[in-house]
User: Fold this.
Amino acid sequence: KIRDYLSSGRDYKTIGRRPFYKMATLLTYFGPPDYRLLDS
Assistant:
């Protein structure tokens, strides 16, 4: 689902307003091992 937001440029602005989604998108790019903790 996060990938869909990244695909849409207009939705990207909405993500910027929300710190949570913004952080999630960054995690999607870097793909840290702590990603499992967020999924839990």
The chain has one domain: 2-39. Residues 2-39 form one domain.
